[in-house]
Amino acid sequence: MLGNDxxxxxxxxxxxxxxxxxxxxxxxxxxxxxxxxxxxDFAVHLDIPRAVLTDRLRALVERGLLERxxxxxxxxxxxxxxxxxxxxxxxxxxxxxxxxxxQFGDGHAARYHRHTVCGTDLRSGAYCPVCDMVAPLxxxxxERVPTEAxxxxxxxxxxxxxRPMLAPLxxxxxxxxxxxx
Amino acid sequence: MLGNDxxxxxxxxxxxxxxxxxxxxxxxxxxxxxxxxxxxDFAVHLDIPRAVLTDRLRALVERGLLERxxxxxxxxxxxxxxxxxxxxxxxxxxxxxxxxxxQFGDGHAARYHRHTVCGTDLRSGAYCPVCDMVAPLxxxxxERVPTEAxxxxxxxxxxxxxRPMLAPLxxxxxxxxxxxx
DNA sequence: CCTTTGGAGTTCAATCACTAGACTGATCAC
DNA sequence: GTGATCAGTCTAGTGATTGAACTCCAAAGG
Lengths: 181, 181
What we know:
Two copies of one chain form a homodimer. Chain A has 181 residues and is α+β, with helices and mostly antiparallel strands. Chain A is 40% helix and 15% strand. The N and C termini of chain A lie far apart (37 Å). The model of chain A has no long low-confidence stretch (mean pLDDT 88). At the A-B interface, helix 1, helix 2 and helix 6 of A face helix 1, helix 2 and helix 6 of B.
């Protein structure tokens, strides 16, 4: 959406938006947090034009929020994974996600995020009130409450959970979901 | 940037981005939280094309995040203020702002947000660790640490603070700042 | 070896959004 | 009434996004 820069603005928010404010970028990061790693899985799950996906992934890798590494199972293909720096966006992203579901929660499905070490549902900003800390992605599992309107693509099905955040979507998962209909 | 919708995505994040994901929208809300209320003040502070500002303000009013009311001091002009619903975005916006300043904190100025009832600096998500609560905008004051590179427009100067969030920028403030140079 | 398939892009024309700047109509200070 | 300011609108030019078609490569099947 944005495309670009807010050069006149000397505020952290403007800096943040220059990196993650473009259309699709936050959704790509969200998927990466959920364990999506392959180009084709992002594309299927997001319904995003591939040219845009290519561009956004490249930008995120350039910015150091994702890392691109060769897929051990398929020569010539790449996997995209959140870097440590990228994972620092988790609380902010969670806060936005929560706001969205709270505002429009009626007809839309909710997704729960739980702190695995204590079983507590996270508050806005991925804060665990029991442990008094921001729950890092490695300690979070998520589950989707299904609705009639849920997407049925293999990636959406595989991500219904409950499953740990960051756990890579395996080929078996997406194939099984797509599988013998 | 975005322009629009992510209709296929049944996720709170997508819903949120449909409302506040367009270019400029979050910066407009941020300014509104700081007390900017007049069209011209938004325009001066953001360096935003006026056609876009008109459009975004209209959309935010339509969505119920801002309210538009007649300016008591100037017939025919309007003021824009965050609604209660709009203010629920504060924690998410604060989290993003914090992330931006942390990522690029070196050369760029920081802005502090303090919980006025206890004097504590807020954590990401506007959380006050001392009071164990999210500090609502009404209980927050902010202050800008000035740098050489700071903007010098009247609105930026007036917002340096310390000053309470939501406190309206008066005509006197912006005039005094612009004043006898 | 040859062909086919599917992933991961790239390229392209058409569309849509954003931008800067000129313009308008209303209000206000003088 | 004149000029200035504000809050917009309009318009033309630019840039980003889109969907479809195209390419390149690796692996699988025969």
